[in-house]
Design brief:
about 350 residues; mainly alpha; MetI-like fold; 2 domains; 3-stranded antiparallel β-sheet; 13 helices; 6 strands; about 60% helix; about 10% strand; elongated
């Protein structure tokens, strides 16, 4: 199970890193809206007529596309079932009714031309494997884009918690005495404050935004690491190889981080996996409350927030799918942590 869970984490990481290049909606934040096809069921497909602006350039570098999370569309897509000319105008029909009428400067076709011969880059079928949300956005693309937020919060939170927790725990466990008392007092103070409440306080103090959420989550999760590292250091620092290192005249910093730390990484890695899962849950909760990822940035938490009112309807999957993504990713990290613990 741990290997399967690790495979799922790797798959989600690949999707998060290559998202703008592999997801169906390649616009920034997967935010291509078309209200005429809102709340369509999974498997929905429709023909679309594309109107491309010659002055709009969508050719950007791979780095820019990755950094911005996508690129702006060069073409405006009009969903339709059929096309017909009315004079010089092109009429687009959906369910037998005219939904759009384009002038000759927009459609760019010769009046009376054979519509069956329109090139495939102007008139083609568009598929929505998981349907569309209330704004007509591709749900699959939104879920894929939301994976980057969850993994990003988890990575930064774990890095910050490992740095702070390892340093403070190492000094407390190695030196003991008054140093240990002061650091443990600080740890207990932070420990006594609920994580979610502290994160909310930090985001209210410094404002909303994803980077502030990343830092806030990381700054509240180091106490578990510090307590584990402190206990391990207190145990290992009394062993013979540490006494030998002191006898050879090595500095305390070298002994702590070159000799002791590598021997206690097992429990630290396990607690880091648990912190990764906790960070994902905290981020989803903050986004659900509206103080995490801000719309239109896709987050599994704010996707649930947008659609939780539909949970008793036939559109419940719009809230259910991001919830399943959160559950599977958190469960995967916990299974990986259990596997490392048993090893």
């Amino acid at each position: 199970m741990s290997v399967v869970a690790l495979g799922w984490i790797v798959l989600v990481a690949i999707v998060a890193l290559t998202g703008p290049f592999i997801r169906p909606d390649q616009t920034p934040n997967a935010n291509d809206q078309e209200l005429s096809i809102s709340r369509q069921k999974p498997g929905y497909s429709t023909m679309v007529f594309a109107v491309c602006a010659s002055s709009k350039n969508s050719d950007i570098s791979v780095w820019e596309m990755w950094r911005k999370g996508g690129r702006e569309k060069a073409c405006r897509e009009y969903p339709a079932d059929s096309l017909a000319f009315s004079g010089n105008s092109l009429q687009l029909f959906k369910r037998g009714e005219i939904v759009t009428e384009l002038g000759p400067e927009e459609h760019g076709l010769e009046s009376g031309s054979d519509l069956a011969e329109i090139s495939e880059d102007r008139w083609y079928r568009k598929q929505f494997l998981l349907g569309t949300d209330r704004f007509g956005r591709d749900v699959l693309s939104r879920l894929m884009a939301g994976s980057a937020i969850s993994l990003g919060v988890g990575c930064i939170a774990v890095v910050i918690s490992l740095l702070l927790g390892t340093i403070l725990g190492a000094f407390a466990g190695y030196y003991g005495g008054r140093t240990d008392a002061v650091i443990m007092w600080f740890i207990n103070v932070i420990w006594s404050v609920p994580t979610l409440l502290l994160v909310i306080a930090i985001t209210f103090a410094f404002g909303k935004g994803m980077w502030k959420v990343f830092l806030a989550v990381g700054l509240t999760m180091w106490v578990e690491v510090a307590r584990v590292v402190r206990g391990q250091f207190m145990s290992v620092s009394r062993m013979e190889f540490v006494e030998a290192a002191r006898a050879l005249g090595y500095s305390d910093v070298r002994i702590m981080f070159r000799h002791i730390l590598p021997n206690i990484m097992g429990p630290v890695v396990v607690i880091a996996a648990a912190n990764f899962a906790s960070a994902i849950l905290v981020e989803a909760g903050l986004s659900f409350l509206g103080i995490g990822a801000q719309i239109p940035v896709p987050s599994w938490g704010n996707m649930i927030k947008e659609h939780y009112a539909l949970i008793t309807t036939d559109l419940a999957y719009l809230a259910f799918l991001p919830g399943v993504c959160i559950m599977m990713l958190v469960l995967s990290f916990m299974l990986v942590g259990d596997g490392l613990k048993s090893d």
